Amino acid sequence: MDSIFGLQGGDFVIVACDGSIAHSILKIKETEDKILKLDDHKIFGISGEGADRNSFGELVHKNHCLIRYKTGSYMNLQETAHFVRSMYAQAIRSRDGPHQCNGLLGGVDSDGTPSLYWLDYLGSLQKITRGAQGYANYFLLGLLDNQYKPNLTKEEGIEIIKKCIKELQTRFLIAQNKFIVKIVTKQGIEAFTI
Amino acid sequence: MSYDTALTVFSPDGQLFQVEYAMEAVKRGLCCVGVRGKDAIILGVEKKATSKLQDVKTIKKVYQLDHNLCMTFSGLNADARILANQTRLQCQQYKIYYEDDPSVDYIAKFTSQQQQKFTQRGGARPYGISTLIAGFSNNKPKLFQTDPSGACSEWKATSLGKSAKQVKDFLEKHWREGLHEKDALLLTTKALMDVVESGNKNIELCVIRKNECWFLNENEVEELTKITAQLQ
After folding, report:
1. Which of A24, A187, B2, B161 lies at a C-alpha separation of 20 to 30 Å from B130?
2. What is the CATH number of the domain that holds A38?
3. Which residues of B fall below an 8 Å CB-CB distance to A?
4. B96 and A62 in contact by Cβ < 8 A?
5. Which residue numbers of A have CB closer than 8 Å to B's CBs?
6. What is the pLDDT of residues A68-83, one digit of tens each?
């Protein structure tokens, strides 16, 4: 039931997630951060059941760090996206089965180029400029398509995300009050709650 | 009967010759030095190009294991790479289990355990390296040494490889408790310069601080060697 959505601008990427964790009819928490920081210029928003989200997130983060220490530097966005995809793909026919979570990987390379990738639990990988995971797709794709234009500024991007949040809060059956928004630019990662 | 060809055979006087021979390989290796200061540990290594055509700049002998943990060695280069990669993996695994960085004690013990495994296995040889592992434990800087037998010990300052004795004597005379980072750096550089072939290109230096590692680049090493030479 997680909403994860994001868009890529001229020099930034935004990924937003809802903050709620639910268990049957109870809302356990409203301020859960589902967007993982892989390094100073990469974020990975993960949608799925709590345990799967956490364990896969940790696996991605630690493997990302291991590669950094083995090779001397962090991977760039394209390499990271393909690496995460290969983790998903190797798992699907493994003994323990697929990693039951989907994700949106976004970030900015050292030369300032932003990219956003859509990943799903079977190992699909798509480079996108705007998109969402889960039920948010039904409500937001139209809105994102309508509002998106190439080379958005950061302020325009944040406005679009606010419109998306308002749309979810208006029309989505499941009440999602708090959203965590993370923006990656060449300077680093900014985070705030809406 | 020769007791030195198989690893898993003790000699009548209680020695494991293969392990001793591995330590000989270490003694023939290039020199490395570790110095523990008040808030940092310095690791220094001798680099040597095997021919004029090899680019000495590209030789990296201080391995970063984690954001504030580094390792260097004397002995067989390739064995060091393998051991470093195993230890890097262990650092990340520890973080998954315990949601916390491993202390340098833990990592040093892990490395020495890996080395010990290969003193009790048939068909395999010990790692031909002794390592110096530098990092923090409870916010205190620590320097550890491991060797092919799997022994692990903590040091204030030490050196390995060729000329280790000469360097250790020098360190014994000049090391004192509570060295500031700059002084520890100068001490390490001076210790190395005594035994390394002339040329600052042949020294690699790394400073391990509480939250980061600083690998000195070519120019910084050159600066240091100049200052050290002037002080003498």
Report:
1. B2
2. 3.60.20.10
3. 60, 64-66, 85, 88-89, 91-93, 95-96
4. yes
5. 58-59, 62-63, 65-66, 69-70, 72
6. 999 999 999 999 999 9
- Largest Cα–Cα separation, chain B: 57
The amino acid occupying position B225 is T
The helix/strand/coil state of B151 is: coil
Residue B135: CB atoms within 10 Å: 28
CA separation for the pair B176, B180 (Å, rounded): 10
Does residue B7 surpass a pLDDT of 90?
no
pLDDT at B5: 75
Q: Is-above-0.90 flag for pTM?
A: yes
Tokens of B42: 């310095």
What is the span of the domain harbouring residue A28? Answer: 3-193
Q: How many domains does chain A have?
A: 1
Q: What is the pLDDT of residues B117-153, one digit of tens each?
A: 999 888 889 999 999 999 999 999 999 999 999 999 9
Q: Which ipTM value was assigned to this complex?
A: 0.90
3-state secondary structure of B130: strand
Q: In this predicted structure, which of A32-41, B190-199, B211-220 has the lowest mean pLDDT?
A: B190-199
Q: Which of B134, B139, B156 has its CA nearest to residue B210?
A: B139
Which residues of chain B are within 8 Å of residue A58 when distances are taken between CB atoms?
Answer: 96
- CA proximity to B132, closest of B176, B80, B90, B168: B80
- CB neighbours of A30 closer than 8 A, spacing ≥ 6? A19, A20, A177, A178
The closest CB to that of B66, out of A58, A59, A69, belongs to A69
Chain A residues touching B88 at Cβ < 8 A: 66, 69-70
Cβ neighbours around B151 below 10 Å, total: 12
CB B192 within 8 A of CB B31: yes
Six-digit token string for A56: 């896969």
- Give the A:B interface size as CB pairs under 8 Å: 20
